Amino acid sequence: MIVPMSEKHVPQVAELERLCFSDPWSEASVAGELLNPLSNWLVYEENGVVAGYIGAQSVHPEADVMNLAVAPGFRRQGIARKLLNSLIQLLHRQGIEALFLEVRPSNYAAIALYEVFGFVQVGRRPKYYVNPSEDALILRKEL
Fold first, then answer.
1. Catalytic residue among 15, 27, 45, 102
2. Could you tell me which residues are beta bridge partners of residue 3?
3. pLDDT digit string (tens) for 41-97?
4. 3-state class of 124 per DSSP?
5. Residue 119: phi, psi to the nearest 5?
6. pTM for the model
7. Which residues 6+ apart lie within 8 Å of 80 measured at CB?
8. What span, in angstroms and rounded, lies between the C-alpha atoms of 101 and 121?
């Protein structure tokens, strides 16, 4: 089930950050998003376990996906697709007109997912990522 992130989800989301990213957000940073009026974070829960999450920050009329992750044991089950779809619907209801995100060029699975949703590359950020160093593709979708 997809629900808005709450305080009870923060430790599990922070743990997924550590599992899924080489430069993870701290638990304090994740918790801080709950206080940010520009943020929308959703989690996919299964029997009380956070299997995945997605977060975005909006500055009307645009939003930027901050993070999207699915726990390794829950991958290839459509959870990322459901999270992204739910976020897009939420942002559209809020009047957001365009959604941006950055992705590693080597993250073929994520790029394939974003292409299914109609994201297109609009730029590149040199050396955006660390551990390992890699450019970021900037993708955009009109909502």
1. 102
2. 43
3. 999 999 999 999 999 999 999 999 999 999 999 999 999 999 999 999 999 999 999
4. strand
5. -70, 145
6. 0.94
7. 52, 54, 68, 70, 110, 113
8. 10
Instruction: Please give the Cα distance from 53 to 21 (Å, whole number).
Output: 13
Q: What are phi and psi of 10, to 5 degrees?
A: -55, -50
Query: Does the N-terminal peptide bond of residue 61 adopt cis geometry, omega within 30 degrees of 0?
Result: yes
Structure tokens at 76: 């290839």
> 128 catalytic, yes or no?
no
Catalytic residue among 114, 115, 128, 134: 114
Is 45 a residue of the active site? Answer: no
Amino acid (one-letter) located at 11? P
Kindly report the number of other CB atoms within 10 A of residue 116's CB atom. Answer: 10
**Residues contacting 18, CB < 8 A, separation 6+:** 24
pLDDT digits 0-9 by tens, 1-38: 999 999 999 999 999 999 999 889 999 999 999 999 99
The answer to whether 42 touches 83, Cβ cutoff 8 Å, is yes
Tokens of 123: 């730029």
